[in-house]
Here is the input.
Amino acid sequence: MHDIRAIRENPEAFDRDLEHRGLSPLSAELIALDDARKAAVSAAQSAQERRNALSKEIGAAKKAKDEARAAELMAEVARLKDEAPGLEAAQGEAEKVLDARLAAIPNRPKEDVPLGADEHGNVEYRRFDSSRERLAQGRQHFELGEATGLMDFEAAAKLSGSRFVVLKGHLARLERALGQFMLDLHTGEHGYTEVVPPVLVRDEAMFGTAQLPKFRDDQFAAGDGFWLIPTAEVPLTNLVRENILAEDELPLRFTALTPCFRAEAGAAGRDTRGMLRQHQFNKVELVSITAPEKSDEEHERMLACAEAVLKKLDLSYRVMTLCTGDMGFASRKTYDIEVWVPGQQTYREISSCSVCGDFQARRMNARYRAKEGRGVGFVHTLNGSGVAVGRAGLLPADDLTLATALKTPLVGLTDDDLTRIAARRPFSETLEDALTRHAEAGDAAAIRGHAALQLWIRLAAENGPFGFYAALLGAHGGRSRLVARLGGEAGDAIDVFLAQAAEAETGGDAPCLDAFLADYVVRPGRGKSGLSVKRDLEAGRDEVRVMTVHGAKGLEAPVVVVIDGCEPLGRNDPPLLGLDPAADGPLPPVWTGGRTQDCAATLRARSALQARAREEHNRLLYVAMTRAADHLVIAPYRGATRETPASWCEMVRIGLERGLGPGEAVETEHGPVTIWRDGSAAALAAAAETTAPPEPESVPDWLFSNAAPEAEAAPPLSPSGALGAADGQRQPRRRLGDAEARRRGALIHLLLEHLPRIEPARRAEAAERFTRARAPALEEGKRKELVRAVLRLIETPDLAPLFSTQARAEVALSGRIVVDGIARDVTGRIDRLVVEDGRVILCDFKTGRPPADDAPLPEREAAQVALYARLAAAIWPEHRITALLVWTSGPVVRRVEESR
Here is the structure.
């Protein structure tokens, strides 16, 4: 992506560079698009400024009681408000058009790149001749591969079509060995960090390295917004996307061995035989992220690293500087390494090292903060292929991962410890083996590291991501070590990370620590899914974010304004103060009318409360001051309360004057302002006080013990299943009758619920209409008999209280009663209930066949109603409870004895 400001400053140079790449002049078109964008931005801003000014005029008009003028101004504000969405849309469209045009233009070549239209304009930079005799003639690689049976193009074609190959036997092992050899060389001797990146990336990553949108047809789309990577340059370079790095972090050097996928859409008829121009191949990639002034030096270094591979393999090669017409889209300068191929008697490009300047960084918004107050700028990116070829609890043999883990606060090994343990070990010995050897020899640091590694291995084997980290950070003290090293703010990041680990275990797949860690490749928050425990303000939205200091924890913005209310501590002390516990136990809180009414005990409690408030006051000030990346403004609120030495603005002023001296006083239209700029390292060092860290407070042993397992709460009882609950066994319900019987029972219960509310003279008619509407398929005779049975039941004298105006139908009850010595929650619904004259009558209706007069009550039904009665007795303890079972056919009324 190009800088439109640089194009405006020197359009002639921009057009000249494009001409060298075979393009027509474009500066005039781009400047016109930028003018349109600026006009759209200006129109939107002017409309907003006019609305703000009109709002003030409306207030003045209303204050002057000029209602006509106020109405006129309000109408104009309404018109501007209606126009605002269109202006904003026009601004967004203008920005989109300009960005799309800039994104389609290739990078500008460096001044020393040779001019040329195609590969014939490339210039040899240097060459290296093998010690072996160069063959005058040789066989093609695919001829040797097919003859030995180690390359199978036919099988690959059956699997995937053309431009694929299956490698077998010794050749497959050779490709694997070459990849391992190059990774070991680049990480062990050249200082690169090995990365295992995802091979599926999203649109943003492909755009960042300029594969999209121009070269869409050359890529393989995988669906759902994913692309197969054409080179590991894409994920490796995008590791720094949307980040601001410190200059001290640079350069970053990454290497990876990945499969690469290219459609080769424009390669028809060219080098289609053999393993050239394949749709899939393996490649070792080198990527560097550096400061601008170091990129040329890094380019030469990267070239030397790639050359070292071929020199160690003793292969003849030459380095070519590509001309302007043969360079890649994103490159400013490219070196190609071409190896001599005896079978073709020519040199073939086998590696390519390119410097891209800030072209990719602008597309990715990858920046760095320069030292010595030089602001924030875009990094430079470089990439190169190491030569084309094929994590600590999970991968303890990964030396880099293990060393990084051992240096964390979880173990605390130092660089000296690692050097002592790992240096001068045999090449075949892993860091894990060396750690074990030194631990057995009594090295204290190695013993600590070995014990930690064994714990990690065991936890990784037994747990998913949340179980692993919850145990590591909790029972094994990891959280306290991290917070002790990193400060209390680290607790927020730990909580977010644990929440993400817990979420990873709630999906449809089995919990997998390996899959979870794949989202945190190389550096936390820069993996394939963008998982992050850092909170970032959304950039580029032209917004002012208003929030509390507490809510801003973990955020950073270029400019931060802290509004200090200067509210004195103690103004809002709560009226209830907790007292120190007495010798014979804790005391309840005490209500006080204020400081003037404090006794000695409440004064101590108030002082302790204010001390804690002061500590939180100071902690929040630290949070507020560290939110700003470039500019911090402390502004006291000029209300009734003036600043005091305890106010943030005064604390900041006093601290800066002590550390950096008096600031620069400036008079503005809003009043005096004092400015402090970045201080020198010497001044800051002189102002720092070296104090010993406080001793950690002792904590009880139970904090690190496993909690006793809790007995699972018994499920609530339903009276309809009370018999099974009473005898401790789950009893299956009896099979329901046929459909007609179920429908008949539902109709009876509905009639018994609603008919008592209707006047007696109208009940028969209402029942007839209701049953006819609800059960039209029921035979006329059966329907009339059902209505007569219900009416007969309602008119039964012994049941008259249940159908009075005080009675209620379908009454839901819940409570807790003791069943077989166990307190159980009970919920249920009673068909009819009435409370009157010191007694409670409850009834449950049954529509089945009633028992004989001399037969005992059915156990299940009786237990159900007895449970209802127990609930009612707990609710109305002063009332006499009468529990009835009523069979509607008859009716048959039976009382459930209280002894049940």
About this structure: The chain has 27 helices and 27 strands.
